Fold this protein.
Amino acid sequence: MSVPESKYLSAVWRDDIFKGKVIFVTGGAGTICSMQTRAMVRLGANACILGRNPSKTEAAAKDIATVRPGAKVIGIGGCDVRKIESLEAAAAQCVKELGGIDFVIAGAAGNFVAPIDGMSSNAFKTVMDIDVLGTYNTIKATIPHLLRSSTARFLAVSATFHYTGMPFQAHVAAAKASVDSLIASVALEYGPRGVVANVIAPGPIAETEGMARLASSRPEEIAEFAKTVPSGRYGTVKDIADATVFLFSEAGSYINGQIIPVDGGSWRRQGAYTVGVDANSKYPDFLVNNQLSQGLKGGKKDKSKL
């Protein structure tokens, strides 16, 4: 599927600023990470994207490669970030076929709407394993290669729920707080050796799998929610991709160990809304009455799918 450049990249960036560089991305076929990768490839990088679904990952890689003549994009499906052996093999393949690793995005994640008493211990563990262990394994598998790069960058995709707490997101809040802490450790331990490590924390991003699972798809609910964002709108995948390009570019070389919310200021007002409910739902009524939105994507709303 061809994607117009205006949808994933602003016109302010110079061509080929990442020429000869290689980016390694977990969750690379997802709605956000695929656009981060697409932007980097358009600006000169080659890429290796990882995902659980082989056909989806390989198709995404072929599509991303079309953004620039001569681009090389490898799609490695069947990769489970919870298994270090899987990531080490993928990193080795990336280096063998593309020549090295300069940039890494740890973007593999899991999420769903569930109250604590409606979520099994296994469901909680699954999210922790994908997000936290998956990020740790990505660090372990790629750091040896990043240390050989003159422009080494590591970027984790996090969230903002743990800044204030969020009903129905205990699992994600716990996982993303851990991810943020891991990246702080990477910056401290490997900054002196040339690795720059940061976190991007997306807010409500339109037309993504994450928002489909967390917020109602009804147009009137979307419009009402957008009013609660200080910037007055949902974010776009281009907002995330542009922030990624900046952090990976020379302009971002002295930003290290930081958490960068890309959310239009919405986390400042998180107490005024929650995920998984309709705009007219009132706290604490929706909790007491177990009133989840009927506009969420997939699954029963009264218990975890995992």
About this structure: Confidence is low (pLDDT under 50) at residues 299-306. Residues 26 and 201 are 16 Å apart (CA to CA).
